[in-house]
Amino acid sequence: MKLMLATLRRDAVLAARNPGEWLNPLAFFLMVIVLFPLAVAPEPDFLSRIAGGVVWVAALLATLLSLDMLYRADVEDGSLELWHASGEPLYALALVKALFHWCISGLPLTLLSPLLAVMLHLPDSAYLALFLSLALGTPVLSLLGGVGAALTAGIGGGSLLLALLILPLYVPVLIFAAGAVYQASLGLPYTGELAMLGAMLSLALALTPWASSAALKLNGLR
Fold first, then answer.
1. Would you say the C-alpha torsion 68, 70, 73, 79 has a positive or negative sign?
2. Are the C-beta atoms of 159 and 68 separated by less than 8 Å?
3. Is a pLDDT exceeding 50 seen at residue 104?
4. pLDDT band at 24, cuts 50/70/90?
5. Among candidates 78, 71, 86, 85, which has minimal Cα distance to 1?
6. What single-letter DSSP state applies at residue 69?
7. What rounded mean pLDDT belongs to the chain?
8. Which residue spans traverse the membrane (predicted)?
């Protein structure tokens, strides 16, 4: 636990020293939401129908932009090898990294999205569904993204490969999350979609850290 907390503190210090790495995805998310109504018909009825999908696509792409930095510093400065030499399981490292990534990417997106959805004329009945879908779905994006980041950690310029690996895994999350918001906007029940997101989160918490640790052993400890 001490090593996990030390890793969290180290990552927080690195993020504070390099704010652009985590602010750029957030700025991208904000720009997409702000500019989208200007690029299409700014009619409230039209925007309200697609608001949930727009917010979720922007959140997904913003999360993807920040995945490349997940293990890059650990590979470059040898921290990954030191962690392995300490005898601590790489499972713990993968879990801490995914948690920290969510804190600096998924959590801000979740908190900002209901406010920005006002610009897209999201119906009042869908705000709770949007918040809950992001609260359940963005951790899944970080956990799945951690696997891709671990696979490409030792590859220079692996951002494109990372996107190709992870995007297909993100599609089910996008479908159920956007579906929940759309169902809520129509006044229909959306608990089924949220239950699926909760199941995905449970599976991701149980499986992805093990997959990430195996990938780190291949890429970071050769």
1. negative
2. yes
3. yes
4. confident
5. 86
6. G
7. 84
8. 21-40, 46-67, 99-120, 126-153, 160-182, 194-216
154 SS3 class: coil
147 contacts 209 by C-beta, under 8 angstroms: no
Domain hosting residue 85, numbered range: 28-33+43-219
Return the structure tokens found at 101. Answer: 């990534």
Torsion angle in degrees (nearest 10) through CA of 137, 89, 216, 67: 30
Identify whether 8 is part of a domain.
no
Return d(Cα 18, Cα 211) in angstroms, integer: 28
On whether residue 11 sits in a domain, the answer given is no
Q: What is the pLDDT of residues 143-170, one digit of tens each?
A: 999 888 888 876 765 677 788 888 899 9
Asked if residue 141 is part of any domain, the answer here is yes
Verdict on whether the full-model pTM lies above 0.85: yes
Cα(113)–Cα(115) distance, integer angstroms: 5
Q: Is residue 71 helix, strand or coil?
A: coil
14 in a domain, yes or no? Answer: no
